[in-house]
Write a structure and sequence with these properties.
Elements: E1 7-11, H1 16-27, E2 31-36, H2 41-49, E3 54-58, H3 64-78, E4 83-86, H4 101-129, E5 132-137, H5 150-170, E6 175-182, H6 188-192, H7 196-204, H8 218-224, E7 236-239
Parallel strand pairs: 1-2, 1-4, 2-3, 4-5, 5-6, 6-7
């Protein structure tokens, strides 16, 4: 899965799963464009340690203006885009009585609209090269019951529908589009939201009974971002240790 010379754009790249994806892509030879609304300093250190070219862009991926700017900066710096990993997401736990329209729109804007906007900006650069790999991050929470996740589950189900539709539209251009659903993973965001207690519970209900780490999903994403996945498109793969089947 060598990716020498491939330009890879990763959203939500500042920490957690996004940062692990940046490391994996850099170690396999890709140029890394890391996009995040927060600090990118540690991600830059990781990518530069792998001796790969780097571009960090601070942007709100739910903003049409910001995502257009990301596409412009990628085009100006590299002239093409080969890989897009739409990883940015938020996961507020909101029971139904707490979900007003603003909260609903915020979750869908970050988790689903951002993927549309990033593709809108970068797919033309992929078409120009006649090759592209898009990986959209969904979630294995769609496989389980549980309260407080109505907006989140709606957004992540939308990712799967978006992936299937876009795959059909882009196949003739040499671009594949797939979705990956990580397990409930030990990330800074999960720990900050008070979800540490749920990590062990999640571990015990999957076949591989240990807490999921950010690196656990990277291999699946690397495959889908590589030449080796040329005959895989429109699919959803749950990299979740066997906690549920699609």
């Amino acid at each position: 899965m060598k990716m020498e010379g491939r330009v890879a754009v990763i959203t939500g790249a500042g920490r957690g799963i996004g940062q692990a994806i940046c490391r994996g892509l850099a170690e396999h030879g890709a140029v890394v464009v890391a996009v995040d609304i927060g600090d990118l300093g540690e991600t830059e250190r990781i990518v530069r340690a792998a001796q790969r070219d780097w571009l960090g862009i601070h942007a709100d991926v739910s903003s049409p203006e910001d995502t257009r700017r990301v596409a412009h900066e990628v085009q100006e710096r590299f002239g093409h885009c080969d890989i897009l990993v739409n990883n940015a997401g938020i996961y507020p736990r909101l029971i139904w009585d707490e979900v007003d329209y603003d909260a609903w729109r915020k979750v869908l804007a970050v988790n689903l609209d951002s993927q549309f906007l990033m593709c809108l900006g970068l797919v033309p650069l992929m078409k120009r090269g006649g090759w592209g790999r898009i990986v959209n991050i969904t979630s294995d929470t769609l496989l389980f019951t549980g309260t407080g996740a109505t907006a989140y589950k709606a957004s992540k189900a939308g990712v799967i529908g978006f992936t299937r539709g876009l795959a059909a539209d882009l196949g003739e251009h040499g671009i594949t589009v797939n979705a990956v659903g990580p397990a409930h993973t030990r990330t800074p965001g999960i720990l900050e939201s008070g979800g540490a207690a749920g990590l062990e519970m999640s571990a015990q209900r999957r076949i591989i009974k240990r807490i999921a780490e950010p690196d656990d999903v990277v291999g699946t994403i690397l495959f889908l971002a590589s030449d080796d996945s040329y005959f895989v498109t429109g699919q959803t793969i749950m990299a979740n240790g066997g906690s549920g089947f699609v």
